[in-house]
Write a structure and sequence with these properties.
About 35% of the residues lie in helices and about 5% in strands. It is mostly helical. The protein has a domain at about 545-575. The chain has a 3-stranded antiparallel beta sheet, with helices on one face. α3 (about 40-55) runs parallel beside α6, α6 (about 125-150) runs parallel beside α9 (about 205-225) and α17 (about 415-430) packs antiparallel against α20 (about 495-505). The radius of gyration is 25 Å and the shape is globular.
């Protein structure tokens, strides 16, 4: 039987201290300070609490699946029928702005890390062991400050355990985001140099540090590049020197992982899907760290939700389906292999596509409220199969029902590290760093494209891979044809557009897309309507012809469709599924450069923190636009 991933907490750490007679013991704080910090075993147990905060996997039960599937807010990949997930907060005290859990939890973790940093130097360990544990503390502190900065930008920076009487330090105002990012960089650099390469099963090692370093520093560098120091008119440009330092940190972290020889992109019929639906990821070389689940002990609900339940939270949009390349490596607007140009219904549009599409999305429609499907229905018609184990589903396993999935959850994958690397390399080359080369593509995107995959249920099994991309001046090419996507955002140069596309497709529904749109300053992709006032592809689902499904009712009482050729018709005979029409197709409007829009890139500082500072006679600065 597999062991549970998490083996302790601060509570267990306290229980592990002296069992002397209660009346003879020192006070609890004295015991923790003077007696507890005596061995690696104790400090390891103490640190396990941090694992539960940063390696959440698929969560448990229905707590938005740990950020996977529907847990990634504000993205053009996933449509939701619930306003709280779909729409931006109206004020500083509504929506996500009303939630302060990440703020308080992160500072609790920072306190734990600072406690470790205070106590480790006095422990009876050799210097290498001390350096390792200091590295662990600084790694988790970097993780905590990264989590805070991704939501609020700059925050108060505390790097030691403070006396309650140090009011000026305890109630210090927020450090700027550029300065905070450099503090995060320093912590990661120390951890990368000092954490052990092997510290036991599912314990943090140097390669895990490198993987998360590549993620968090790429985020910080690109956020500061595309936004500046904050949002709105008070934002100041950040120097190229600082941005390059952060990008180089991301590259260094990624390269440590890439050069280790420990990780690889798996290949084989179900190699992509297996990363998300296997009951044992211990031998999977694409998975750098994972959360383990065990039947009868601790399971998750992600598979049962995908397999059997109505997806009232929504599912994949037409926008992301159209972003998948054709099998010749060209966009659908350029490829002669695309069969959906005249009739984009699923039977045509899913032909000759990137094989990851077939292991991510069911290739037949399951339309919510249509009256002919009873399970796994979706408001967009597209049902996800990325997190569904095909064998378990076929045999009717209870693992696909009732929150009983023991499928392990990848917390960070090698594939992401490769994508972090190639994006950081391209970005740094644009700021005067070493030139971006074909080798950068060959050791990143092209490794992903070598993966050979099959299509679910296809007999005989046909293995498919994608052609390599090649540098072609300021663009990329495949098989001698320069990629020229007519759907490309003209403000994004062609190479970067394709790097971002590869990231979107590979990491779909893994909780990255929302972060990516924030750091790239691209929330305009979320707009609910296009330039003509028609619903955008981020609001629409699959293309449906009623003649293909004669038993469904179209229109307000059944499946609502939108046809751009007949936009005023409430019940056209064919069109894209448009369930959000009842909520208005202009519910999400973002105007670049307007503070009322730009403020959404950062959350409002929790009102509870503002009040706490004010009551103590201090001021905590609010984010622009939320004052």
């Amino acid at each position: 039987m597999k062991r549970i991933f998490y083996i302790g907490s601060l509570f267990l750490a306290l229980l592990a201290t002296s069992c002397d007679n209660f009346l003879d013991r020192e006070p609890l704080d004295t015991e923790v300070n003077d007696t507890y910090w005596t061995s690696e075993t104790n400090i390891r147990t103490f640190a396990q609490h941090l694992y539960s905060d940063y390696y959440t996997g698929y969560g448990t039960d229905y707590n938005v699946f740990g950020g996977y599937f529907s847990g990634d807010n504000y993205t053009d990949d996933f449509l939701s029928l619930t306003g709280g997930v779909h729409d931006f907060p109206l004020t500083a005290t509504t929506g996500t702005n009303a939630t302060s859990t990440t703020w308080t939890d992160s500072y609790e973790d920072i306190y734990m890390c600072n406690t470790m940093l205070e106590k480790i130097p006095g422990m009876s360990m050799d210097d290498a062991a001390k350096a390792h544990w200091i590295g662990i503390a600084r790694y988790f502190r970097a993780m905590a400050y990264s989590a805070l900065s991704k939501l609020w930008g700059g925050v108060p920076y505390i790097d030691r355990v403070m006396d309650p009487n140090e009011k000026d330090s305890l109630y210090q105002d927020r450090m700027s985001y550029p300065d905070l990012a450099l503090k995060i960089l320093d912590d990661y650099k120390y951890a990368l140099a000092n954490v052990r390469t092997d510290d036991g099963t599912r314990q943090v090692n140097r390669y895990i540090v490198g993987a998360y370093m590549s993620r968090d520093l790429l985020y910080a560098a690109t956020w500061l590049k595309y936004h500046g120091s904050t949002v709105g008119p008070t934002s100041q440009p950040v120097s190229d020197t600082e941005i390059k330092a952060l990008l180089q940190g991301a590259i260094d972290g990624a390269q440590l992982v890439m050069k280790s020889g420990k990780y690889a992109i798996g290949t084989g019929p179900n190699a992509y899907n297996d990363n998300f639906s296997s009951d044992d990821l211990s031998g999977n070389k694409d998975v750098i760290i994972y959360r383990e689940y065990t039947d009868g002990v601790q399971c998750n609900a992600l598979m049962s939700y995908n397999a059997a339940e109505t997806h009232t939270m929504g599912d994949l949009t037409e926008n992301v389906i159209e972003s998948y390349l054709c099998s010749d490596g060209l966009p659908i607007g350029q490829s002669p292999l695309y069969k959906g140009a005249k009739d984009p219904s699923i039977k045509n549009a899913f032909q000759n596509r990137d094989p990851r599409l077939y292991q991510t999305v069911v290739d037949s429609l399951r339309i919510w409220n249509a009256g002919i499907w009873s399970q796994a229905e979706s408001p967009t018609g597209y049902c996800t199969k990325k997190f569904l184990n095909e064998e378990w589903y076929a045999e009717g396993s209870p693992y696909c029902k009732n929150r009983q999935s023991p499928a392990d959850a990848p917390c960070i994958r090698y594939a992401e590290v490769l994508l972090n690397y190639v994006e950081a390399r391209y970005e740094i080359s644009r700021l005067g760093g070493d030139a971006f080369t074909q080798n950068d593509l060959d050791q990143s995107i092209n490794l992903l494209r070598d993966r050979q995959l099959s299509k679910w249920g296809e007999k005989p099994v046909v293995l498919r891979s994608m052609p390599h991309v090649m540098l072609a001046g300021n663009s990329l090419s495949v098989n001698g044809t320069v990629i020229n996507d007519p759907a490309r955002d003209p403000s994004v140069d062609p190479i970067l557009w394709e790097i971002r596309r590869e990231r979107r497709v590979e990491l779909i529904e893994e909780g990255r897309r929302g972060e990516d749109l924030r750091r790239w300053a691209k929330y305009e992709y979320l707009n609910s309507a296009d330039a003509n006032g028609n619903p955008s592809m981020t609001e629409l689902g699959a293309y449906v012809k009623q003649s293909d499904y004669p038993h469904i009712l179209v229109g307000a009482d059944g499946v609502p469709l939108f046809n751009a050729a007949d936009p005023t018709n409430p019940a056209p005979a064919e069109g894209y599924i448009n369930y959000r029409y009842k909520q208005g197709n202009k519910t999400r409007v973002f105007t670049p450069g307007d503070l009322n829009s730009e403020r959404y890139y950062l959350r409002a500082v929790p009102s509870s923190q503002l009040v706490s500072y004010k009551d103590a006679g201090y001021t905590l600065t609010q984010n622009p636009g939320w004052e």
